[in-house]
Amino acid sequence: MATLGFVGLGTMGSRMAQRLLDAGHSVVGYNRTREKAKPLVDRGMRLADSPRAVSTAAEVVFSMVTDPEALRAVADGADGLVAGLRPGAVYVDMSTVSPSATREVGAAVEARGAAMLDAPVSGSIATLEQGKLAIMVGGDPGVLERVRPYLAAIGPTITYVGPLGLAVTMKIAINLSLGVQMLAFSEAVLLAEKGGVPRERAVEALLKSVAGLTVLREGPPSVRGRLLRRGERGRDRAVAFQRGRGAAAPGPSRRDRSAWGRSSGRRESRSRAVGR
Ligand SMILES: NC(=O)c1ccc[n+]([C@@H]2O[C@H](COP(=O)([O-])OP(=O)(O)OC[C@H]3O[C@@H](n4cnc5c(N)ncnc54)[C@H](OP(=O)(O)O)[C@@H]3O)[C@@H](O)[C@H]2O)c1
């Protein structure tokens, strides 16, 4: 059986690595904050001292880190995972990052005679633990077939999107769609609330209606709590809106976004947050 590498053992990465271990794979991992990896070490994962040490030891390397800066931090440099990739190896980045960062790293990977796929995911901690995560994949379709069994151990739904960078593009489009749907949801709650329906009751009724969002119905209670307090995460929306501007698909207007902020419980406009 192939040795698999995993870089970035945070909330999502640790659970993905756990699923690979559960499927019987040999996993070597790295996390910047070493102590976070201890539970996985206790369950059989080998801990490496650098991203490079991971890719030196593995035929297929996965990463799951925060953002483009984190991707560059684990991929580039003398201790970065690209430096250790063997010719013929496959590197699969599953983070939600920008298409440009993905393609830059992809060019460096190719220069080493290895191949890169972008494979961001749609889902939550709960869907990952339940084995229901949806994965989108960009890159060479032949390379995807080589790593499909490993990806399937992480999540059962694998959608091939196109060349490298298009899967993260798709993921950002999904985040934009989610943001717009949450905006519409918040507007409905606001209308109901202004008419006298208690906010919690309005959310409950909406969730049980045809307008109920899967992410709110099936996601963790914390997502619903966030909506009640202040709406969905600002960072993903910021990425989506910025990406939308670049793609001439600007997303909700500043006025719409301000309304969203107000309706989801914030006193001040969200436009500053999403424009970051
Ligand atoms: N959480 C979700 O429900 C969810 C759902 C779908 C997609 N995602 C995407 O999955 C990715 C990871 O999310 P997460 O929830 O797992 O986040 P997280 O728990 O904060 O984990 C982030 C990981 O990135 C590492 N990292 C960050 N900056 C780094 C740097 N400069 N150098 C080296 N390592 C660095 C962290 O290392 P340390 O442990 O040392 O900080 C950690 O391993 C994000 O792109 C997110 O958008 C998350």
How would you characterize the overall build of this protein?
The structure is a single chain. The chain has 15 helices and nine strands. With 276 residues, it is an alpha/beta fold. The protein has two domains: 3-164, Rossmann fold; 170-274, N-(1-d-carboxylethyl)-l-norvaline Dehydrogenase, domain 2 (Orthogonal Bundle), CATH 1.10.1040. Strands 3-2-1-4-5-6 form a six-stranded parallel β-sheet, with helices on both faces. It has a three-stranded mixed β-sheet with strand order 7-8-9. The longest helix has 29 residues, at 166-194. NADP nicotinamide-adenine-dinucleotide phosphate binds at residues 8-13, 31-33, 36, 64-66, 69-70, 73-74, 95-96, 121, 123-125.
Supply the key terms:
N-(1-d-carboxylethyl)-l-norvaline Dehydrogenase, domain 2, 2 domains, 276 residues, alpha/beta, three-stranded mixed β-sheet, six-stranded parallel β-sheet, elongated, single chain, disordered C terminus, Rossmann fold, binds NADP nicotinamide-adenine-dinucleotide phosphate
The number of strands is 9
Mean pLDDT: 86
Low-confidence stretches: 230-235, 263-276
Overall structural class, as computed from helix and strand content, comes to: alpha/beta
* Separation of the first and last Cα atoms: 45 Å
Q: What level of helicity do the residues show?
A: 40-55%
Radius of gyration: 20 Å
CATH topology of the largest domain: Rossmann fold
| Distinct bound molecules | NADP nicotinamide-adenine-dinucleotide phosphate
**Major sheet strand order:** 3-2-1-4-5-6
CATH superfamily of the largest domain: NAD(P)-binding Rossmann-like Domain
Count of separate DSSP helical elements: 15
